[in-house]
UniProtKB/TrEMBL annotation:
Belongs to the cycloisomerase 2 family. PANTHER family: 6-PHOSPHOGLUCONOLACTONASE, 6-PHOSPHOGLUCONOLACTONASE-RELATED. SUPFAM superfamilies: C-terminal (heme d1) domain of cytochrome cd1-nitrite reductase. Pfam families: Lactonase (PF10282). This is 3-carboxymuconate cyclase. InterPro entries: Cycloisomerase_2 (IPR050282), Haem_d1_sf (IPR011048), Lactonase_7-beta_prop (IPR019405), WD40/YVTN_repeat-like_dom_sf (IPR015943). GO terms for molecular function: 6-phosphogluconolactonase activity.
Length: 351
């Protein structure tokens, strides 16, 4: 753990209208139990369900999860602590729910959950999003009659140490690894991995020092562990549940993160409304060490504060962000501090 900062700026995406401040900036003070205070907010975007920042914290990108999806770019004024819109582009599909940037800070990627497609755009020098370079539409379905009637890509991330893009598709029960091997950057499919039918792959976390990938399965409330070889091929290691034994009520798993030291993994449960904590073994395997109630409903997203032992949990349906502190044993514990905000669904910390 590095030196603790005096404060952290946290961007929050919400399911609010374009007439509301649907993206808000909060200041997290790590002293004591940890407190959040509002700094600023921006209107003009509806349902910014996922946000990402560039490496320098100069630009923020948000997807507007609406029928005719949009990706919106902002500059961040570090003196005034406000976001200023640069431009926006259509995502060429409905309900975009994830956005990420490549390691070179030259491309931005989105997935259209209802549109069943993934797209990439160039980034201009001023942070603006350029015209779409490539867009791939998935096909197929899986066994859940309501949730898997067609493709529903949920995440696109760059696999560390590579230029490969890993895409989860909740609707087809597949993981796709795309590679850009031409100067124009167009994607080709490098690897395709089936998951157990009805699993619904959603979000991804990477081990910081091992070639191990963790995929949270929304519909089966499980985590699938993979190792990646030198050719970029994924091999299944194990699958573990995010729920305690004996829990049989409805639940969907949502978010997943690995601690900076690679010793612990955390996953959120919507229904059980908890954070599941796992100790990570030498080869990346998982051993559940406990569950912590999120003190709210539907923890869609959570954030591990860098260089600290704090966790922030966004409870979408109870309108709170709950502050937790992680013990030396790796278990998150509520500090008693929380912040009220309508429908929080994405938390990102300013680099």
């Amino acid at each position: 753990m590095g030196q603790k900062q005096e404060g952290y700026y946290i961007f929050v995406g919400t399911y609010l209208s374009d007439e509301d401040e649907a993206i808000q900036l909060l200041l997290f003070d790590p002293d004591g139990e940890g407190t959040l205070t509002k700094v600023s907010g921006v209107k003009g975007i509806k349902n910014p369900s996922y946000l990402t920042l560039d490496q320098k914290g100069q630009h923020l990108y948000a997807v507007s999860e609406i029928d005719e999806g949009q990706i919106v770019s902002y500059s961040f004024d570090k003196e005034e602590k406000v976001l200023k819109e640069i431009n926006r582009k259509p995502t060429l599909g409905s309900a975009p729910c994830y956005v990420s940037i490549d390691n070179e800070q030259q491309r931005v990627f989105i997935v259209n959950y209802m549109g069943g497609s993934i797209c990439q755009y160039p980034l201009e020098a001023d942070g603006a999003v350029g015209d779409v370079i490539d867009c791939i539409k998935h096909s197929g379905h899986s066994v859940h009659p309501e949730r898997q009637e067609g493709p529903h890509p949920h995440t696109i991330v760059t696999i560390p140490g590579t230029t490969d893009r890993l895409v989860t598709d909740l609707g087809t029960d597949h993981l796709y690894v795309y590679r850009s091997e031409t100067p124009d950057g167009h994607w080709s499919l490098h690897d395709e991995v089936d998951v157990v039918p009805g699993s619904g792959p959603r979000h991804v976390a990477f081990h910081p020092t091992q070639p191990v990938i963790y995929v949270i399965q929304e519909l089966k409330s499980s985590i699938t562990v993979y190792r990646q070889d030198e050719e970029g091929t994924l091999a299944l290691v194990e699958t573990v549940s995010t729920l305690p034994k004996g829990f049989t009520d409805e639940n969907t798993a949502s978010d997943i993160h690995v601690s900076e030291d690679g010793h612990f993994l955390y996953a959120s449960n919507r229904g059980h409304d908890s954070i599941a904590a796992f100790q990570i073994g030498e080869k990346g395997t998982l051993d559940c060490i406990g569950h912590t109630a999120t003190l709210g409903q539907t923890p869609r997203n959570f954030l591990l504060i860098p260089n600290s032992d704090f966790m922030l949990v966004a409870n979408q349906d109870s309108d709170t962000i709950v502050v937790m502190k992680i013990t030396t044993q790796g278990l998150p514990k509520p500090t008693g501090s929380q912040y009220t905000i309508e429908k929080p669904v994405c938390l990102q910390v300013l680099p």
